[in-house]
């Protein structure tokens, strides 16, 4: 009846609605808001008071709610009155643009190859004190760009303007990008989705980050069961998409609450 074009339009609208429900707003329940406020407080007290705090958010595998958690963290920091920047460092399968409903193509990758300036790529969001730098055009060499001197120089430049910089990075057990970016940050948060994350995968993530001398600030247990904790769920996040991973035979034990 609608044809391919109509079906796609409905799907896009439904996806935008789902994305909007994941993000902190006026209708967000108290327990979810309080969880992110507590997370913000823990991060504040985990790092020195002086200088820009740079926090990388990653996960072990796909579909653990990493990008949504990172965005909600950024909103929470901005609401507290701190100048906050969220950078989508996933140059392979970016997700932040979808969450905020912005399809702008200019972003991090374009800055790193001198295709545009920081001001041209920077997005001032509807949230006071919160700016977003999307991933930009998908490059053929994402790992090399993230490991480049241009990336280090960019972060030094942005550190002069913001109190907190949050990095949304790809899953550690999928590509090496998160470990590479970790050298630029003050600490790392690992998002672990209940009954999705495999215990051995999570252990491997911690080991890889520790091998890179990364400071692990903590683990966020996401989508927690109400019956297990008495609190509401953060929300049912959609598929991360585009990534795949292999699991060894018998490696099926899951991380419990």
Tell me what the structure shows.
This protein has 257 residues and is of the alpha/beta class. The protein has a single domain (7-229), classed as 3-Layer(aba) Sandwich (Rossmann fold). It contains eleven helices and seven strands. The chain has helices at residues 3-22, 30-44, 66-79, 96-100, 108-112, 118-121, 142-146, 149-159, 177-181, 199-211, 226-229; strands at 53-59, 84-88, 122-124, 130-133, 164-168, 187-193, 216-222. Strands 3-4-2-5-1-6-7 form a seven-stranded mixed β-sheet, sandwiched between helices. Strand 3 (122-124) and strand 4 (130-133) form a beta hairpin. Helix 2 (30-44) crosses helix 3. It is globular. Mean pLDDT is 82; it is low at 1-10 and 228-257.
Describe the secondary-structure layout.
Elements: H1 3-22, H2 30-44, E1 53-59, H3 66-79, E2 84-88, H4 96-100, H5 108-112, H6 118-121, E3 122-124, E4 130-133, H7 142-146, H8 149-159, E5 164-168, H9 177-181, E6 187-193, H10 199-211, E7 216-222, H11 226-229
Parallel strand pairs: 1-5, 1-6, 2-4, 2-5, 6-7
Antiparallel strand pairs: 3-4
Helix pairs in contact: 2-3
Please supply descriptive tags for the structure shown above:
257 residues, alpha/beta, Rossmann fold, disordered N terminus
